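Hey, weird one. I pasted the Luciferase-like monooxygenase sequence into the form twice and got a warning about non-standard characters only the second time. First submission, copied straight from the form history:
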Amino acid sequence: MPEPAGTPAEVAAESERWSAAGADGFVVMPALVQRTLGRVTKLLLPELRDRGLLAGDAGGGTLRKRLFGTDEPTARRPAGRRE
């Protein structure tokens, strides 16, 4: 899959085309995160929200709390296991 490049509006437009074609998400490759995460969060995410391609604020908190209802790891999950 091609790596989108351009202005935030151009990348959002390409994302919109992919979404219309059936894409249901995107993976940000770790090699790109170091260089571009700040620009993505400050420039691209607002553009995607304006186009209705990204939900608004998820309500804050950690991902663990949003997914599992707690910030504490449990024994069922690897991070909570004490061996």
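That's the output from the first submission. The warning seems to come from a hidden character in my clipboard, not from the data itself. The CA atoms of residues 62 and 71 lie 7 Å apart.
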